[in-house]
C-alpha cells in the first residue's frame, strides 16, 4: 500500500522521536532543543541528497506543535504515514510519557504489518542522544540494535549530544550523522509499512515504557472534581470525565490539560510522574511513613468546597510534607472563580493550614504554572542530590582526565 499524505501535510520519510525539553523562561532566546534540531536538519539534508525527495518531505520533528490544539492530530498523522521511526535514546526519553505514546502509535503499524513468517518489519532505527546501558532499556527496546558500528567508535561513547557539542568531535559527528541517514534510507527503501487508517487517537494511547524504572519518581496528585462531582454553582467548562482532565486555563484552542504540562516539565527535570486523583492517592498521602520522593499536588479551589475533599486534604495536611509542593492555579479570566474567590480562599485555607500552597508568584496563567512548577522541581532535584547515597569509586586514586586535542584522532 503506497504512503499517502496526511491530513495536515506531506508524508515524512522519517519521524524523529525525542524527549522535548520545555523552555523555562518564555522570554529567553535560548532554545533548549537546538542541538536536536541541528541533528534533525542535518539528517534531512543528507536524506534529500540521497533520494528524490523535495525539501520538507524528509522528516518530521515536533518543534512547535506542543502548544497548539492540533498537536495530537498532527502527531498521529505523521506517525501513521512515516516510513521510519527514529527514537533518540536518553534516560529522559524513556521517562517521557509522550515519547512512549509515539512509540506505541508506530508499533501499532508495525504489528499490523507482520509477515507470514511471524517476523515484523525492521522500521525502527534507534539513535543514541546520550550513552545508555543496554540493560537499562525498557523491554520494548531491548531487542532492537542501537549501537550501529558504522556510526563510529566515538558515537557509542558520546552519543550525538557529545559529538555535536564538542568542537574536537566535528568529524565524528559528520560521519555518524551521514551513516545514520544512510541507515534510514536503507530501511525506508527495503521496508514499506502500511499506513494506519484511521490514525490512532494519540490521547488514548498508553506508553510502552511502563516497565522502565527511573531513579527519581514523582507523584502528581490532581485535586479537582470531574463532571459527575461538580459543585452545584460551578460550570463544567474547565472539567472532564476524570480529575486529570481538569484544564483551569482553557480558552479558545488551548485544550491541553494541566497534567500534560506537569508531565512535560517533570520529565524535563529527570522525574517520572505518577499521576493520580486525590481519591487514588489518599492512602499514601495520609500515611505516617516518611516521604522518600518529592511530590506535587495540583489543587482546584472549587474542589475544597466539598466535605469529602476537605476531609481527605486534612488527612494529608496533618502530616509533615516538606517534599510536597501544593500548587493552586487561579484563572483571573474565570468570572465564576473571581466572583467566589474570597469564599474559595477560606475553604482552601481550612483544608490546608499546615501545608500552604505555593502562591508567590501567583499562578494565574499556563506560563506562570510552568515556571512555578519548574522552580519547585528544581528545588526538589537539589534536595534529592543532597540526600542521595554517595558511591565513591573503589581502589587507588587515578590521575585527573585532561581535555582532548583540537581534533580527536579516534
TrEMBL record:
Pfam families: TIR_2. Residues 387-410 are annotated as: Disordered. Residues 387-398 have a biased composition (Low complexity). Residues 14-149 form the TIR domain. GO terms for biological process: signal transduction. InterPro entries: FxsC_C, FxsC_N, TIR_dom, Toll_tir_struct_dom_sf. This is FxsC C-terminal domain-containing protein.
Amino acid at each position: 500500500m503506497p504512503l499517502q499524505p496526511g491530513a495536515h501535510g506531506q508524508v515524512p520519510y522519517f519521524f524523529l522521536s525525542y524527549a522535548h525539553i520545555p523552555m523555562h523562561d518564555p522570554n529567553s532566546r535560548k532554545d533548549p532543543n537546538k542541538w536536536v534540531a541541528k541533528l534533525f536538519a542535518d539528517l534531512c539534508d543528507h536524506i534529500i541528497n540521497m533520494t528524490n525527495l523535495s525539501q520538507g518531505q524528509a522528516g518530521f520533528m515536533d518543534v512547535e506543535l506542543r502548544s497548539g490544539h492540533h498537536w495530537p492530530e498532527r502527531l498521529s498523522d505523521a506517525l501513521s504515514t512515516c516510513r521510519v521511526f527514529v527514537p533518540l535514546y536518553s534516560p529522559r526519553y524513556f521517562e517521557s510519557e509522550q515519547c512512549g505514546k509515539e512509540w506505541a502509535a508506530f508499533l501499532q503499524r508495525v504489528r499490523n504489518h507482520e509477515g507470514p513468517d511471524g517476523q515484523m518489519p525492521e522500521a525502527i532505527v534507534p539513535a543514541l542522544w546520550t550513552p545508555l546501558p543496554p540493560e537499562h532499556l525498557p523491554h520494548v527496546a531491548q531487542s532492537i540494535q542501537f549501537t550501529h558500528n558504522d556510526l563510529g567508535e566515538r558515537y557509542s561513547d558520546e552519543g550525538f549530544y557529545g559529538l555535536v557539542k564538542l568542537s574536537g568531535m566535528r568529524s565524528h559527528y559528520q560521519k555518524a550523522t551521514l551513516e545514520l541517514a544512510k541507515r534510514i534510507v536503507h530501511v525506508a527503501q527495503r521496508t514499506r509499512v502500511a499506513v494506519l487508517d484511521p490514525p490512532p487517537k494519540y490521547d488514548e494511547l498508553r506508553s510502552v515504557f511502563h516497565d522502565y524504572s527511573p531513579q527519581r519518581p514523582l507523584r502528581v496528585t490532581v485535586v479537582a472534581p470531574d463532571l459527575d462531582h461538580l459543585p452545584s454553582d460551578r460550570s463544567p467548562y474547565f472539567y472532564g470525565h476524570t480529575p486529570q482532565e481538569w484544564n483551569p486555563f482553557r480558552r479558545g484552542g488551548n485544550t491541553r490539560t494541566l497534567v500534560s504540562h506537569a508531565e512535560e516539565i517533570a520529565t524535563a527535570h529527570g522525574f517520572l510522574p505518577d499521576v493520580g486523583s486525590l481519591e487514588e492517592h489518599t492512602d499514601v498521602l495520609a500515611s505516617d511513613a516518611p516521604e522518600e520522593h518529592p511530590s506535587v499536588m495540583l489543587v482546584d479551589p472549587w474542589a475544597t468546597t466539598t466535605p469529602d475533599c476537605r476531609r481527605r486534604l486534612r488527612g494529608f495536611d496533618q502530616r509533615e510534607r516538606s517534599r510536597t509542593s501544593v500548587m493552586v492555579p487561579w484563572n483571573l479570566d474565570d468570572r465564576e472563580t473571581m466572583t467566589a474567590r474570597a469564599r474559595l480562599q477560606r475553604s482552601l485555607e481550612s483544608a490546608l493550614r499546615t501545608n500552604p500552597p505555593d502562591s508567590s508568584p501567583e499562578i494565574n496563567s499556563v506560563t506562570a504554572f510552568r515556571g512555578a512548577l519548574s522552580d519547585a522541581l528544581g528545588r526538589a532535584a537539589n534536595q534529592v542530590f543532597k540526600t542521595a547515597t554517595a558511591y565513591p569509586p573503589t581502589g587507588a586514586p587515578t590521575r585527573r582526565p585532561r581535555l582532548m586535542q583540537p581534533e580527536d584522532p579516534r
